[in-house]
Amino acid sequence: MPCVGGLAQNPPGANAGKLVDMRAKKSLGQNFLVHGALQRKIVEALGCSKSDTVLEIGSGRGALTRHLVGRAGRVVLVELDDRLAEALQDEWGGRPDVDVLHQDFLELDLSAVTADPSELIVVGNIPYNITAPIIFRVLERPRPRDVVLMVQREVADRLVAEPGTGEYGALTVGVRSIASVEKLLRVPRTAFRPVPGVDSAVIRITPFDPPPLSSQEEHALRVLTRATFAWRRKQLQKILRDHEALHVPRERLEDLTLETGWDLTRRPETLSPADFVRLSAFIVGNR
Fold first, then answer.
1. CATH number reported for the structural domain that contains residue 167 in this entry
2. Residue 7 falls within a domain, yes or no?
3. What are the tens digits of pLDDT across the range 91-108?
4. Would residue 10 count as lying in a domain?
5. DSSP letters along 176-236, please?
6. Residue 6 located in a structural domain
7. pLDDT tops 90 at residue 21
8. What's this model's pTM, rounded to 2 decimal places?
9. Domain that holds residue 187
10. Nearest 5 degrees, angle CA 101-CA 102-CA 107?
11. What is the pLDDT of residue 196?
12. 215-230 and 273-285 are packed helices; what angle lies between their axes, rounded to 10 degrees?
């Protein structure tokens, strides 16, 4: 959905100074985005309108919030930091179109936020130290309509990596078997305060609708990808036969070769996400 109207920044409220003056907590992996043009580009990428509910993970000092409030129909701010949650409440909590949730996003039930999570849009500048848990948490069922996240550049590279490359792995397959991934923006470390030791990138994750796999099939696929990439330097046939989570009988491996034409002396990083889905279905169907 295209953006509606221009992207106007909300004027600072009476308590804006309280937010701006907050220092980052290293224990929570906080790095605040201070580059105004990038803040606006991220919100523009959401394509939100007055008909949308947007959930912001880790609202921090309100860098994205001030561009979201008044643009989306409803904005839900999720912030774990006690000081920041209080300041966000002071700044925007009096508005009927803003909800401030003082809690850990990893413990949040999206069904408690909205009656239809499949229409939810999620955005966030997420801590580097819990990036993967947040990505997999936001992709638990029921999934939002669209997700735009600021992540470490190396994570973005892994998510869009092609088979056979060093960046390709379990995270790539786990996400791209259930969603499309697009890298939107490169963000230099100098756009943050305090300045982190790495560069960042903004990615869009769009879950497939309807989901191509059942919950049981997704679980089996996770088991397979974790096992194969834990032994990524070994041949596929050895992993499938000997890994304790798999134990595919030798005769079934022969059937797999006949059915797919695959050379099982190859390594797991040469399989595409679609190949992993096919392999997982074979293993589950022959147990």
1. 3.40.50.150
2. no
3. 999 999 999 999 999 999
4. no
5. HTTEEEEEEEEE-GGGEESPPSS-EEEEEEEE-SS-SS-HHHHHHHHHHHHHHHHTTTS-H
6. no
7. no
8. 0.88
9. 16-207
10. 85
11. 87
12. 110
